[in-house]
Amino acid sequence: MAKNLLKAGFQVTVYNRTKSVASALKRSGAVVGTSPRSVAEESDVVVTMVTDSEAVKQVVLGKGGVVEGIRRGMTLIDMSTISPNVAKEVSAELARKGAKMLDAPVSGGDSGARAGTLTIMVGGPKQAFDECLPIFDALGKKVVHMGPAGSGQLAKLANQILVAGNMAGLCECLLFAKKAGLDLDKLIDSLSAGAASSWALVNLGPKVARRDFSPGFKVKLIEKDLRYVVSSAKDMGAAVPAAALVLKLYEELDRKGLGDSGTQALVEALEGLSDVQSRPSTTLKISRGLDSEHV
Fold it and tell me: Most CB atoms within 10 A, among 14, 169, 204, 258?
């Protein structure tokens, strides 16, 4: 994404805890900062993308963070996927410094990031969104202003409900077909032409069939996102039983050491249930987490 900003002609100052990453960008024309604060001091707009809510608070509001170098009138674009409540909290803190924040999580995976074809869902002041459109246009092909602070994150969580549901459906489908003795490659080819087709089927179906669990998006990241889904749903009083169930399956994969695998590794959790489906305790283990607090 930083390389795409450079290609679009922006002057880019970068910081990464992993120095080799920043060094690679330096060779592409970026200036390397020494901290998030130093990046803010050298910039008009700061873009952050880190793992979770706590990382955003640390990078933006912590010691040596963006808030220490940001100036009145500046804009922070946070492209991480975090809790909508944390997005609102950080936005309010920056407003006290006279700065604006846009929460702008993305969808499209690593391939979309490289190609500059991400879908970007943005929350925050409309004026700041309009001012930052050239930046968004360098990073994505579909950019939508969703509403006030936190709205981008809520849209991304809605996106993740569909992503998780599609993945569960894909893995159940191929496991069912495998148990039935069908040729998975022929099945994927057939289903891809009909109403059952989806991005997951076309792009990840062949990986599931080959048991290729190399990550485009990791188990531990979709697990984190689904936790935000369940928490936000609880706050709003929305029922998300399917998302809560898929979360439980991903948590089981993480416990088995598959947190860095691609999300298509979900098939392994379903295979585990299939191998022991006659044991009553298995059903109880999955159901126990699906109380009213989660749905």
Answer: 204
Token pair belonging to 162: 């569909």
In this predicted structure, what is the pLDDT of residue 217? 92
Domain boundary among the residues 116, 147, 178 is at: 147
Q: What is the pTM of this model?
A: 0.89
Select from 119, 147, 175 the last residue of a domain: 147
279 — pLDDT class (breaks 50, 70, 90): very low
* Residue 156 bears catalytic tag: yes
Q: Pick from 238, 243, 232, 294: which is nearest to 86 by CA?
A: 232
Q: Concatenated DSSP letters for 47-113?
A: EE--SSHHHHHHHHHSTT-GGGT--TT-EEEE-S---HHHHHHHHHHHHTTT-EEEE--EESHHHHH
Q: Which two tokens stand for residue 69?
A: 């170098």
Q: How many CB atoms lie within 10 A of CB 197?
A: 14
Burial class (CB in 10 A: 0-12, 13-18, 19+), 96: exposed
Whole-number Å distance between alpha carbons of 63 and 61 = 7
Residue 295 lies in a domain: no
293 within domain boundaries: no
Q: Do 273 and 167 share a structural domain?
A: yes
Residue pLDDT, tens place only, 228-260: 999 999 999 999 999 999 999 999 999 999 999
Domain count, the chain: 2
- What pLDDT is stored for residue 292 in this prediction? 33
CATH number at 52 reads: 3.40.50.720
Residue tagged active-site, from 88, 156, 224, 248: 156
- 19, part of any domain: yes
Report if residue 206 sits inside a domain. Answer: yes
When pLDDT is cut at 50, 70 and 90, the band that residue 24 belongs to is: confident
Residue numbers of the domain that contains 172:
155-287
